Automatic annotation (TrEMBL):
Taxonomy, superkingdom: Bacteria
Protein name: MerR family transcriptional regulator
PROSITE patterns: HTH_MERR_1, HTH_MERR_2
SMART domains in UniProt: HTH_MERR
Every HTH merR-type domain range: 1-69
Record's keyword terms, sorted: DNA-binding, Repressor, Transcription, Transcription regulation
Length: 132
């Protein structure tokens, strides 16, 4: 059994974060004289919570769905939904990287004004906007 201070230091989170996760039902540590003590299974759950939080892509509610497991619905739906959202974001980021990268590689001193490729792109955007 580990104390809340030990576990917080090990995970690199605050003790208040661990208490909050406990209050949210993500973990249920044993209590001795009112103090939280974490066993092996608790440590694994907490490590999983931390890893999932570190992705920056899941809320605590979504993490709770995963932790509840198959007894409480299909957690796969939550994961698939989030993966779809991540893939859509990644496509936008890839397009933004390519678009902005062109500005850096364009030989024109003023790409917005003088770049023929950017002009063609804005022409397509304008045509689509005004031809509806």
């Amino acid at each position: 059994m580990r104390s809340i201070g030990e576990v917080a230091a090990w995970l690199g989170v605050t003790a208040s974060a661990l208490r909050f996760w406990d209050e949210r039902g993500l973990v249920s540590p044993a209590r001795k004289s009112g103090a939280r003590h974490y066993g092996e299974d608790d440590l694994h759950r907490l490590a999983m919570v931390k890893m999932l939080r570190d992705t920056g892509m899941l809320s605590l509610d979504e993490i709770a769905v995963l932790l509840r497991g198959p007894k409480h619905g299909d957690w796969r739906v939550a994961v698939q939904t989030r993966l779809s959202e991540i893939r859509a974001q990644q496509e936008k980021l890839d397009a933004a990287e390519k678009f902005l990268g062109h500005f850096l590689s364009c030989p024109q001193a003023d790409p917005i004004k003088d770049c023929s490729q950017l002009r063609e792109r804005t022409d397509r955007e304008l045509k689509g906007a005004f031809d509806r």
